Write a sequence for this structure.
């Protein structure tokens, strides 16, 4: 793999040089006032990205999976019932984590390529007249299939059913890449990580917590130590951490917020939508389609490309890495081999993305797929030319 080439996986994403340097700081006493001055702008900035003025932001030295565990263990007890949508690899893994913590998980399934099945969720909530369901778990952007779900619509369903369950949202591959409105959507726990839209190395788990979620902590009976929000809140209120923090990543997070807000969050989101549409134009020109089954489900951060019958998406990813030094994402779980994934989030521009599309075409040709070199690139070029200037200030 060539480190000179951009990556086209849906995370970790390309790291801007300015953010790489921002993470490279001398050793700092994490119990000093200097650390507090570093930490506060980072979490205050994350709150703005999450769209919350009521919620509280906490970070852990972990990844998104750690965020899932922190959310579950700090708000729920063994034996509690949760309602979870399963429609891809990452929503399935969250369900597995809940079961390992002794939760009773009521699963509503949808085919891979679909989003959160809102009708099934509504039916389950209305049937739960005793309000045994303590939380609803939703994956905002299912990274395995390139599907984004409507969290605002999910909240409307919960409210219409008069159900008091907490709403947990996995925003790992959506937050900082597309609109997220924690307060407006009534999200109680929002979970993300440093390595995707924030354009940093992996290693920070980031949680946004509503007052309702925070109030549920004292009732929660799941064991927790490293991920105990009570310890983290107490330490952070005093300007510190309950244990050694990832100081360099927190410095990078503050710089990332500054970079995103300098571009303008609306521009960041428009850039992601534009890059995603360019990829989809290329996919259509190849005679292929996204795994997401409808346009309203198309993710702005990753496209899972369904490969033609008789072709192997995993073989393309392996070939791209070995021959051209370029990284694409393999298909996972039910779509393994059936798709390859193009990540188009974080630090990417039109020019960078065109190089990835060209590489994908070379791989298809090398593997004997029915492809005309330049077809997808040309389709994306025409779209980018026609929309140039609508989102020029990319993160760099």
């Amino acid at each position: 793999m060539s480190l000179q080439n951009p990556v086209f996986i849906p995370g970790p994403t390309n790291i801007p040089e300015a953010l790489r340097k921002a993470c490279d700081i001398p050793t700092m006493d994490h119990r000093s006032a200097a650390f507090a001055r570093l930490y506060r702008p980072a979490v205050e900035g994350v709150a703005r990205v999450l769209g919350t003025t009521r919620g509280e932001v906490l970070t852990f030295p972990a990844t998104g999976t750690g965020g899932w565990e922190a959310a579950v263990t700090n708000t729920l007890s063994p034996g509690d019932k949760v309602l979870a949508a399963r429609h891809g690899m990452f929503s399935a893994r969250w369900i597995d984590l809940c079961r390992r913590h002794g939760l009773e998980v009521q699963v509503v399934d949808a085919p891979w390529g679909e989003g959160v099945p809102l009708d099934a969720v509504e039916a389950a909530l209305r049937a739960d007249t005793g309000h045994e369901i303590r939380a609803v778990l939703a994956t905002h952007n299912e990274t395995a299939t390139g599907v984004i779900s409507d969290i605002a619509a999910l909240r409307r369903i919960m409210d219409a059913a008069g159900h008091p369950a907490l709403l947990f949202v996995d925003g790992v591959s959506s937050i900082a890449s597309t609109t997220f409105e924690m307060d407006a959507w009534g999200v109680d726990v929002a979970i993300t990580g440093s390595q995707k839209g924030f354009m940093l190395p992996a290693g920070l788990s980031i949680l946004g917590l509503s007052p309702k979620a925070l109030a549920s902590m004292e009732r929660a009976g799941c064991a927790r130590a490293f991920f105990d929000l009570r310890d983290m809140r107490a330490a952070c209120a005093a300007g510190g951490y309950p244990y050694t923090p990832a100081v360099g990543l927190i410095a990078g997070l503050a710089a990332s917020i500054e970079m995103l807000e300098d571009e303008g969050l609306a521009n960041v989101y428009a850039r992601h939508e534009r890059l995603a549409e360019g990829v989809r134009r290329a996919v259509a020109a190849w005679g292929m389609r996204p795994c997401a089954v409808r346009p309203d489900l198309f993710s702005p951060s990753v496209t899972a490309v369904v490969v033609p019958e008789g072709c192997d998406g995993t073989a393309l990813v392996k070939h791209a890495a070995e021959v051209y030094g370029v990284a694409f994402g393999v298909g996972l779980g039910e779509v393994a081999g059936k798709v390859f994934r193009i990540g188009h989030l974080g630090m990417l521009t039109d020019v960078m993305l065109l190089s990835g599309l060209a590489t994908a075409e070379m791989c298809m040709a090398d593997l004997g797929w029915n492809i005309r070199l330049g077809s997808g690139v040309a389709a994306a070029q025409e779209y980018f030319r026609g929309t140039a200037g609508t989102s020029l200030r990319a993160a760099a």
Notes: The longest strand covers residues 133-139. The chain has two domains: 17-261, 264-387.
